[in-house]
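Ticket opened by: R.M.
Priority: normal
Category: complex prediction / small molecule

The reporter submitted a protein together with calcium ion and asked that the result be attached to this ticket for the collaborator who will pick it up next week. Submitted input follows.
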Amino acid sequence: MHRAAPFRRIVLWLAAALVPGLLAAQANTQTLASPLGPVRLTTVATGLQHPWGLAFLPDGNLLVTERPGRLRLVTPLGGVSAPLAGVPAVFAQGQGGLLDVALDPAFASNRRVYLSFAETGANGTAGTAVFRAELNPNATALLNGTVVFRALPKLNTQGHFGSRLAFGADGMLYVTSGDNFQNATAQRQDQHQGKILRIRGDGSVPPDNPFVGNPAWRPEIWSTGHRSPQGLAFHPASGQLWMTEHGPRGGDELNRVGRGLNYGWPTITHGLGYDGRPIPESIGSSAPGLEQPQHQWTPSIGTSGLAFYQHPRSPEWIGSMFVGGLVSRSLHRLRLDDAGRVVVEERLLAGLNWRIRDVRVGPEGAVYVLTDDPNNGRVLRLDPPAVQPRGKRPALPVSQSVAAPQRQREDRR
Ligand SMILES: [Ca+2]
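Result attached by the on-call engineer:
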């Protein structure tokens, strides 16, 4: 048996030299059980530092951000490029750094890319900002970059920057901005913190924003009362905007976002402070004029990226919503009823012990996931369960309670 080992190594070395992509794909694929049948999980890339956001380029490659301030190209077979040039300097402290990446709706003609990030301000302050640039033809650099939006005022903070980016069918860019770990900001009309913002790609304000013309309000504000929003996506069928945000200790939220509405933080919350006591500003879990979440998680799952599944490849998954869990270390697949209530929740990737930072649906109908780690963050591809004959489909599971370890420390976000 021992004599076979060197020969096997030589065969593997030859195979790796001849078909590296094939070998890597086989070595990095595993099959996992799920309530709707086996799903195939492929590790596309490893070794990333706090990967935070991803976007699919038309050529099949991915743009992936790393929070310390790098943007990389990742190929479907796991090639990871050198950092792209032209990325802005970021405030890489605490939860700050390079955050989300999004393509312009007209990327095919203008090659514009948007990045959200924490930007350094004066005297140790920082704030969420949005950068726009053009991707050069061989995708090695961003050109003509400029900051198109800055959340004001910049504050002394290292946390709750947001910040997800999503373009609507209206062509507008929606940006989540966290409360900078300062609760009161989320209800202040003159501050961008704790809001969802709606801007044009050049940062200018659309005239139909809800508070345009009211000098008390920052005109970019679309919705208010958010704490730490890390998921943002438009439903591909209804066009409605949905978001996820971290509660404090408990009370993570899934919200359907309406124009000009107030989602309550910190006046109402389903969570408690990290010390187990009520949030000082809170008057309870509901109040007139303040929106209730469509769903809330107590204990917290550490909600992160959000994606809707509408791809014809998987009838089983169509109509599902995927929510990443940093604390639950799971990918949550939800089904909503016609009223938007969560009626099924299942946990995928549970037991692998990976903090899930982002989730997106790829152009071929697989689900892509980023796992958060200081040095070995991953890009994962999850292929949906094979379509089964109608009579053999397992029954949909009833809503499952999510048992997650109670989160105590903010730096676990
Ligand atoms: Ca809320």
